[in-house]
Amino acid sequence: MSGGDIAALRERARGGDLRALTSLGWRLLIGEGVRQSPQEGISCFDAAATRGDGEAIAQLAVFDAWGVLRPRNVDSALDRLQRAAEQGWAPSQRELRFLAGEEGDDWPALRARIDVPRWTTPPLLRALSEAPRIRVCEGFATPAECAWLIDRGRGGLRRALIYRKDAPGHVASEGRTNTDADYTIARVDVVLSLLRERLATALGVAARYFEIAKLLHYEPGQEFSPHCDFQEPTTAALKQEVELHGQRVATALVYLNDGYEGGETEFPRIALRFRGACGDALLFDNVRPSGALDYDTLHAGLPPTRGEKWLFSQWVRGRPVSEA
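Predicted structure:
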C-alpha cells in the first residue's frame, strides 16, 4: 500500500468509516505500507470497538489475552470475545463456541461456560529419559485443538530456515527441507493464548519466556537433519544472539495429526525415537541443570514416508522474551 493509499485510508477513517479505521489499525500495528506504530494502531482498534466494530473488538480480545501493550487479562479477553460475537463477528462466534465446547448463539451463556482452569491445566508428564531430560505429555491437546492450531497457521507456511552462523538472521539449509509458519499477532487468538499457558504449566516456566510459536509441516521426504536447538556461541553472530535473547533452554513439540508413516523425532546419541499420537507433546531440556549445553539433545525430524506431518513447536529462552 502506497503513501497515497494510506492517506486515503486515514481520510476515510476520520470520516467515520469503521472498516477503514480497523484496517488502518492493522497497518499501523504491523507496519504495512506505513511506519509501524503499535500504540497508534491499538488506538484505532479502541476507537472502532467503541463504535461497535466486531473485528476491532475481537482484536482487542487478542491484545488482552496476550498482554500486548497492556497487562494480560484473560477475563477481559473473554468478555470482549462475547461482545464481538454479539456484534455479529463470525470468527469470534466460532471461537466462543469452541472455548465453551458447545453450540448455540446465547453468547453470555457460552461465555459463562468457558472453564479457564480446564483449558490451562495439562495432563501429567511421563519420563522418557533423565539424561538428557525428556518428557512426554500424552493427550496434551485434543484432536479438535490440534486441528484449530493447523487452521490458524497453515496460511503462513514458507520454507523453514535456520540461524546463520556468520551474520545475524536466517538462511535456507539443505539439512532442513520442511516448511513452517510463525504464529504472529495476525494468526493468534484467545484459544492459542490458553493453550500456550497450558504448555507453560507443563514446562514449569512462565509463558513470557516463550519465543514466537511455529507450525511445522513435513511432506513425504522432507526432514530436519540432526541438530541441537540451543545456540552454541561459536561465532560473533551466535554469541550476540545469545547475549541479546538468552539461551534456548527447552523445546516443546506437539504432534498435531495422525495418518502418516515414519516422521519420528530421533535422538541418535541416546538411541531414542519418538512419534507422538495426535495431541501428544514432547518436552525436552536443551541444557543441563548446571546450565551447560547438552549435546545429547542432538535430534532430527525424520521424513514421513507417507502422508503429511504437522507439529506445533515452541522454544523456551533462558530470559523473558515478553512481559506477558
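Summary: The longest helix spans residues 190-203.
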